Protein 1
Amino acid sequence: MDITRITREQKIEISRKYFLVGIPFLPWVWIINVCWFWGDAWNKTNHIPEVRRYVIWSGIGALLHLAIITAWIAVYQSERVRWGELGDDISLHVPYGSP
């Protein structure tokens, strides 16, 4: 999709939809929103304030999700063995061998 060919109103609507779709924990949609509309949000001559707002909040949401997922991975990887059976039960792949 070439976003340079769509109108200002369509850009606002698409950015808004991507932001709303990302709310139920879909951070990759927020990342796409930031990448696609970064130029429209910070273009010095013709920026779109509404798109800038959606790009900022999408970026904040994506970074927050990344921090939460990274923290969970770090805690799980370091504490899985100590959690015993619970650590194995919540794992999709139980590794074989000694801890």
Note: The chain has a mean pLDDT of 88.
Protein 2
Amino acid sequence: MSPAQPPLRHTEVDVQLSIEYKCAFGTRLAVIGSQQGWQTSAAVPMTWSPGDNWNAVITLPTGSDIEYKYIVIDESGSVIRWQEGSNLGLSLRNPGYIMHVTDSWAQDRRQVQEIGLPAAAAAHSSGSSSSSSSSS
């Protein structure tokens, strides 16, 4: 996984990850996954927002089937805690789309929403736009 870099090309999908988690002072969340070979040094740091919400945007190639987890890291980047449970997964099939994913640390709820291309971008693409939402 790599940090998002505009502009989004039709061979990529922007994935916007969000999770609520209360970290201890001096720690923060990051996301790690199969796209980076599960290397903790390549984890994508997340940004905190009020309500203990953590967010990150990553750009990934269309056609990817990825797995990922959240980790808690300290100020030096050392891993304090891995998210328990199975790896989370996504299938990225729609080029140019934005995928909003809201996860829970306990993996007891999840929302995935796929947003189609903006009208200006759609005019330059042969694809069509749609949106869908699912919870698991």
Note: Residues 4-8, 119-136 have pLDDT under 50 and may be disordered.
